[in-house]
Design brief:
Elements (H helix, E strand, L loop, with lengths): L1 H9 L9 E5 L6 H14 L4 E5 L9 H20 L3 E3 L4 H13 L4 H4 L5 E3 L4 E3 L7 H10 L16 H14 L4 H29 E3 L5 E4 L9 H16 L7 H13 L6 E3 L2 E5 L4 E6 L9 E3 L7 E3 L3 E5 L10 E5 L1 H13 L11 H4 L3 E5 L2 E5 L4 E2 L4 E5 L15
């Protein structure tokens, strides 16, 4: 609430407009009413608000981490749909201190201990945290001085969550000199080290990574066999997995370390899965990293003329329609091409004189987006199949900071 009021106060004529995005996680029965109440308060300050609802089954374990991933996915997709370029969140000094302690307890390295960055690229959207050096007490005072009502989430007091337990430790630690301010300062110093490593990783990517606009990446296997720093190799591999999966958050380092060990030891076999991706060795001494089909095979996203464009599918592709007026409500869905879609693509080209375009390996093409009407393939944009609906699909994983090399085609 304090952030929204500050942003509104800084809004100038002709400048960026302030809009509030509220995520209703649906984890508590009263969350829907709370989201609506928050939206009503914001609108009373002439701040337009949109409520985003986390649909589907809710987790019974790792609730906060899973909710956080869902929250950022919903926020990023909404920003991309409506053209928002800057997404502000109200993380403050105590949040930064809690994050540092949580990651220290998990044995995190430089990245984890750098805690939250002031600016993060979410792929087409800049996540900005302008209040990291501001205390929670100051923000509460600001909202109260403005007479703005706010809601205290009861889950922030539940000892079953590790973050809550760390929060309750802060007063004890402060007595030993580990104040939130000092912990946040340490995180800032770690962030400087992280930025230096990221520059090195970007240079490594520019030399060794070859992205395709279809959303997969090729590496020469030798790129991971040299005598360079293992930290850089791990960062590059982690980034590739994150981008290929369309995720805004990196995979757990233990899994990346195990994967790098398999690559270096030559024990990948026919390939491995990791963080929603497949890592496949090729005969040409290359390694392909692509989306895992099992992670997307059940994703069917309805599309109609009322849908906001572009439509973000699986966090990897932005789909736009040339003739959106032809979309029929409840009839069409975006889903993975799969083997059945590929069969229908080949069937389509068997009936025309144009030859079938070159195609990537089956593991890759199965994960590409297609437009379906039931089990009938309507459009496969990566293969030039344009039925009643003309559609283009732009891979947006590469927007997350990768240097693109090689061909911009499949």
């Amino acid at each position: 609430m304090a952030l929204a009021l500050l942003a509104k106060a800084l809004q100038v004529k002709g400048g960026p407009k302030v809009k509030a995005l509220i995520v209703d996680h649906g984890l508590r029965p009263e969350s829907g009413d709370e989201a609506q109440s928050t939206a009503d308060v914001l609108r009373s300050y002439n701040i337009p608000a949109t409520i985003l609802v986390w649909q589907g089954d809710k987790p019974s374990r790792n609730v906060q981490a899973t909710a956080r991933a869902a929250r950022y996915r919903l926020l990023r997709e909404e920003c991309l749909k409506v053209g928002i370029q800057l997404l502000l969140t109200a993380h403050h000094q105590e949040d930064q201190a809690e994050t540092f302690l949580l990651r220290l307890a998990r044995g995190s390295g430089v990245d984890g201990l750098s805690a939250m960055a002031p600016v993060t690229d979410l792929g087409g959207v800049k996540l900005v945290r302008p209040l990291l050096e501001t205390s929670k007490a100051d923000l509460v005072a600001l909202a109260e001085d403005a007479g703005a009502s706010y809601i205290l989430d009861p889950s922030n007091q539940m000892d079953s969550f590790a973050r809550v337990r760390m929060r309750k430790l802060l007063p004890v630690l402060e007595g030993e000199g580990l104040s939130p301010k000092r912990l946040a300062a340490t995180a800032a110093r770690m962030r400087r080290a992280r930025e230096a490593l990221e520059i090195e990783s970007d240079q490594y990517l520019a030399c060794h990574a070859n992205w395709s606009v279809a959303g997969f990446i090729r590496f020469d296997r030798a790129a991971f066999q040299d005598d360079g720093p293992i930290e850089i190799a791990l960062r590059v591999l982690s980034d590739a997995l994150m981008r290929a999966a369309g995720e805004a958050l990196p995979p757990r380092m233990a899994r990346v370390e195990a994967l790098l060990g398999a690559i270096r030891s030559g024990t990948l076999g026919g390939g491995r899965t990791c963080a929603g991706c497949r890592v496949i060795p090729e005969k040409t001494s290359e390694i392909i990293i692509c989306r895992e089909y099992r992670a997307v095979e059940s994703i069917r996203q309805p599309v109609s003329r009322e849908s906001q464009m572009p439509i973000i599918w699986d966090g990897r592709y932005a789909l736009s329609f040339a003739n959106a007026d032809a979309l029929e409500t409840g009839m069409l869905e975006i889903g993975a091409l799969g083997s059945e879609g590929w069969r229908q693509v080949k069937e389509y080209y068997a009936g025309i004189e144009t030859p079938l375009p070159d195609a990537p390996p089956a593991a890759i093409r199965a994960t590409l987006p297609a437009i379906w009407c039931g089990e009938r393939l309507i459009t496969a944009p990566h293969f030039g199949v344009q039925g009643e609906i003309s559609c283009s699909a732009r891979f947006i994983g590469g927007d997350l900071g990768f240097s693109w090399r090689g061909n911009d085609t499949i």
